[in-house]
Specification:
9 strands; four-stranded antiparallel β-sheet; Immunoglobulin-like; 18% helix
Length: 227
């Protein structure tokens, strides 16, 4: 009876250990470096991300998904196989242009006594957004065979893309044009205009008046002659 109780307790402890081990992921992201080192950043800022994915175990039916919001993203992924009592072997795994890289689990699963390291370099530019917002610079996550992300795996780093608020333009002041003052050139001789004299006409005595005066003069001379 005592032996049965001891066996029961051992089985219970083994089940608990197995359950606990299932909750622990067999891989982790290490040595993450993002340049620039912190946000916010302006649109179209060049950015570089490097990191290592250390894999002690991985489910062969799952997928390792790596994603970024960077524009013109380029990925270079190398794989290093670490086997006990053997030199590490590094080989190129993927070179890709785009926002996402996926690595099948069968490439990352292996027998006991072997480990894998993925060395990843990502380059791109901060997205050209119209207003300030947060964007994912890097996200590394494990996906199940039915394309469902395991949210408790990997990492996710976001930066703020800062766009300054435009200042309203002030219309230029209206300019009042002053009349142009004409200044005579000192070297140009000034000619004074001579005023034109208007000729006036005064009419002389009329013919009747002349005849009357002549008649008076003749009579005056005749009277004087008789005396």
């Amino acid at each position: 009876m005592c032996s049965f109780k001891i066996l029961y307790r051992l089985v219970f402890v083994l089940v608990v250990l197995l359950t606990t081990m299932q909750g622990v992921r067999g891989w982790a992201v290490e040595n993450l470096v993002i340049i620039p080192g912190e946000g916010p950043v302006s649109p179209l800022t060049p950015m570089t991300v490097t990191y290592t994915v250390h894999i002690a175990s991985f489910t062969s039916k799952n997928t390792l998904d790596m994603y970024t919001d960077l524009s013109n993203a380029t990925w270079v992924v190398t794989k290093t196989d670490i086997v006990e009592d053997h030199p590490a072997v590094t080989s190129p795994l993927q070179e890709k242009i785009g926002s996402r890289v996926r690595i099948d689990g069968w490439l990352l699963s292996y027998s006991r006594g072997r480990q894998i390291e993925l060395n990843v370099q990502l380059k791109g530019t901060a997205p050209d957004v119209a207003q300030t917002q947060d964007k994912t610079i890097i996200r590394v996550q494990e996906w199940t065979s039915d394309a469902q992300p395991l949210t408790d795996t990997g990492i996710s780093k976001k930066y703020q893309i800062f766009v300054p608020t435009p200042t309203p333009e002030t219309p230029p002041p209206t300019l009042t044009q002053a009349p142009t003052e004409i200044v005579p050139d000192q070297n140009t001789p000034v000619t004074s205009a001579t005023p034109t004299i208007k000729q006036t006409y005064s009419p002389g005595p009329g013919p009747v008046l002349v005849c009357g005066m002549l008649a008076v003069l003749v009579m005056f001379m005749a009277v004087k002659k008789k005396k």
